[in-house]
Amino acid sequence: MDTESRVGVVVVSAGRGTRMGTRESKQYLLLQNKPIIIHTLEVFERMPLVEEIVLVTGADDIDRCSAWIAEYGLRKVLKVIPGGRERQESVYKGLMEIGTEWVMVHDGVRPFVEPEHVLACCRQAQLSGAAVLAVKVKDTIKQVSESGIIEATPDRRSLWAIHTPQAFRLSELKKAHELAEADGFTGTDDSMLVERMGVSVAVVEGSYTNIKITTPEDLAYASFMLQHKGEKNT
Ligand SMILES: Nc1ccn([C@@H]2O[C@H](COP(=O)(O)OP(=O)(O)OP(=O)(O)O)[C@@H](O)[C@H]2O)c(=O)n1
Ligand SMILES: C[C@](O)(CO)[C@H](O)COP(=O)(O)O
């Protein structure tokens, strides 16, 4: 197996950011004067492993995203295309534009992913078939009924919070999406679609800083993180 083969990346950025509650979609908010989506794309642009990037965005955002890509010199972003109503549909549309054997899917609102973790996730997928970045949960997790009563306390040692990127063989992920579509199944991540085909997906330990910017308090943390990164690099 050629573990050095380069990969394509689908960055999904077509969500509305309803939980953030801002007029502007959260992925286009500025952090240190730069749109969050550009911070995310820059991580992958700088990685030699990455051959091509497809950015999936809102139909009305294609022009401004394309302008930013030119402005920030993101040469690996080969296509900017419109997404769908659900994340799953946006991912599938992105997959249709990828030309590499291996693909990683990443949320546009996870700008703090560490390149070394991206590399580890991709290498693991190329070794064992499929892999996702994740962290061990820190809290005790309860399963709670609709009426608010605790039903179960799963053993925390087996619980992980799943992040992106998630890495797969392109043909397998496409097949998983097509099967899910045919069955009317919607998952909250890509791994779920592959898991339901009986494929083993490996978990690669990432970092707690790989947050998905989702709600307003995440922005304060994101600003802090960027400042901290800037200080480290000076
Ligand atoms: N139809 C959709 C929905 C989501 N996403 C993307 O999937 C990633 C993870 O989704 P999430 O954080 O849930 O984003 P939103 O759907 O925008 O947020 P919300 O659920 O609060 O509306 C984001 O980068 C988002 O832009 C997408 O490309 N297409
Ligand atoms: C894919 C994901 O980021 C893994 O944590 C997450 O599941 C996206 O979920 P959301 O429902 O779009 O927030």
UniProtKB/TrEMBL annotation:
GO molecular function: 2-C-methyl-D-erythritol 4-phosphate cytidylyltransferase activity
Keywords for this protein: Isoprene biosynthesis, Nucleotidyltransferase, Transferase
Recorded metabolic or biological pathway in which this protein acts: Isoprenoid biosynthesis; isopentenyl diphosphate biosynthesis via DXP pathway; isopentenyl diphosphate from 1-deoxy-D-xylulose 5-phosphate: step 2/6
Pfam families in alphabetical order: IspD (PF01128)
Residues the UniProt record annotates as site (Transition state stabilizer): 19, 26
Site positions (Positions MEP for the nucleophilic attack): 156, 212
CDD domains with a match to the protein in the record: CDP-ME_synthetase (cd02516)
Major enzyme class: transferase
Reaction catalysed by this enzyme: 2-C-methyl-D-erythritol 4-phosphate + CTP + H(+) = 4-CDP-2-C-methyl-D-erythritol + diphosphate
UniProt EC number: 2.7.7.60
Role this protein plays: Catalyzes the formation of 4-diphosphocytidyl-2-C-methyl-D-erythritol from CTP and 2-C-methyl-D-erythritol 4-phosphate (MEP).
Listed PANTHER family: 2-C-METHYL-D-ERYTHRITOL 4-PHOSPHATE CYTIDYLYLTRANSFERASE, CHLOROPLASTIC
Similarity comment: family membership: Belongs to the IspD/TarI cytidylyltransferase family. IspD subfamily.
NCBIfam families assigned: ispD (TIGR00453)
This protein's name: 2-C-methyl-D-erythritol 4-phosphate cytidylyltransferase
